[in-house]
Each structure stands twice: as structure tokens, then as C-alpha cells.
Design goal:
By secondary structure, the chain is an all-alpha fold. It has one domain. It contains 14 helices and no strands. α6 packs parallel to α10, α7 packs across α9 and α7 runs antiparallel to α12. The radius of gyration is 19 Å and the shape is globular. About 9% of the residues have low confidence.
Length: 328
Amino acid sequence: MSTSACSSSAAQAGSTAAQAGSTAAQAGAVSPASARRPSSAPVRCLVLAGLLWGTGGLTGTLLGAAAGLSPLWVAALRLLTGGALIVAFRVVPLRRWPSGRAAWTRIAVTGLLAATFQAAYFSSVSLTSVSLATLVTIGATPVIVLVAELLLGRRRLDRSAVTRTALALAGLGLLVGLPAGGYGPAAVLDGAAMALLASAGFAVLTLTGATPVPGLGEETVTGLGFTAGGLLLLPLAAVTGGVAFRPTLAALGWLAALATGPTALAYTLYFRGLRRAPASTGALLSLLEPLTATVLSVAFLGNRLGPTGIAGAVLLAAAVLSTARPGD
């Protein structure tokens, strides 16, 4: 997939990446995000990231079926292989190695947050259902990021931001729905708690991505951070799901697809977009993931979307389109 839609402006600024990263960090610390309006290029990066993430659910499901893997194993291999691809093809050939304590600390934090997000999300799924885990995890992230930006002084509270967030959450609730039942109060509470932990992990990942370390590129952060996160998840996946990988041609193909589009490319685009767009914009546009996943499930898996789901998709699309307009 071509990334020219959002990488052209990044290429123009490539020779001054360290200076741009420093300026962005200073702007995030001393001025509200409302003064840092997203231009069309970083917003396109965030939109492309959300669309690519939407393919991850379908691809991961097909990988799990082809290779006989548990969801946690799929998550661990996704991070590990996606990060390794970036390291092998971008970090090593271009010698984009991190330098200094701040850079290595950011990479370690990125790996830990990515592993926490994946582990907590799949723990929530195992306790309740995909719908509840998705609703809480993805729905809470924009709220956490928006509140954090307000508390940190990175943006001012305005009616449009609150309206878009409320519209997106309403649409997500209608689209995903609630679990049909059969879960006890303890399981629901435990599942919701793990989903909130996953949401907090992704929210912090988004907030840190919006304050880049000078001289540290998004490819280096994603590649080394996700490789570390995948290594952290491997022991947990082995304990909970055993070690059973069927290396068929189909399994290897789906693993390559999952590592490339929804992981290596998507997260690199996401962190690139966050360099010049507010974190709350990135969090809201990440809601393209469930919207895209729903469209793919209807188109390729034969799933049906009822009137409530259609209404939710329309509301969610309206919120995303409003957020994607530069200057909003």
C-alpha cells in the first residue's frame, strides 16, 4: 500500500526531524493543542492507520484458524513480527538506531504499553465477550485522552470536541452492542476492569506519541518497541495457550499480512500523524478500526448488520468525518 497520501510532508521534513520533534514537544508542553491544528497530511496518516487496523481483526482471526493459535498468541506474534519487519527493512539498513537515555526509555515504555494493551484486551475477551471488551476498550480511549489533554493544558475544552466524542461513543455503542447475557456480575466487572486497563494503555501510548523524543523517528520507536512488546507477551501466551503453531503456507501468509498492514505500517503512520496532530484527534480517528472491521465482516464473512448497527455505523462515520476535517 502506498503511503504517499501522508508521507510526502514527512519526507520534506526528513532532514530536520530532530528539530521538528523538539518543536512539537515544546509546543505540547507550553501551549494548548487547539493551537496545534492538524493539517491534512497528519490527519491522512491517522485515517490510514485506523483503516488498516480495521483489517487486523479479520486477518488475525484467519491466522488463528490456520495456525491453531489462541488470540493472545496472535497478539504476541503480531507485535513481534511487525516490529521485526520494521527493524529489518527500515531501522538496520538506514542505521536509525536510538541514542541517549530518553530514546531508549521511550522505546521501553512503548513496548510495555503495547504488551499491556494486548494482554489486558484479550483477558477482557476471555472473561466476557468481544463486544464488551471492544466497547469499553475503544470507547474509553478518546475520553481518557481528551481528559488528559485538558488536565495537561494541551487543549481547551470546546463544544465541538465534546460533541464529536459523544457522537462517536453513541455510534460505537450501537455498532458493537452489549453482550447478550450469561455472564455473572463478577465476570462483567473483571472484564470491564481489564478493558479499562487496555484502554488506559493505548491512551498513554497515544499521549506519549504526541510528544516525540527529538531525533527518534516513529519507525525506530515502533520497530524496537513492538519487538520488545512481543517478546514480553510470548511467555504469557505460552503459559495460557500452550505452544502450538502450525506453519502451513496459509498461516505464514496471514502472519505476514497481519505483521505488515495492520501492525508495522498502521502504527508507524499513527505515530507519524501524532507528531503534528492532537492526541485526542488520533484517539477519535482510531475508531475507524471497528467501523472498518464491521464493513469487512459484512462483505467477506457474511455477517448481517441490523438497523441498530447501521445507525451506529452512520453516527460513528459522522464523528470520524468531522474529526478528519483539518482545522477542527
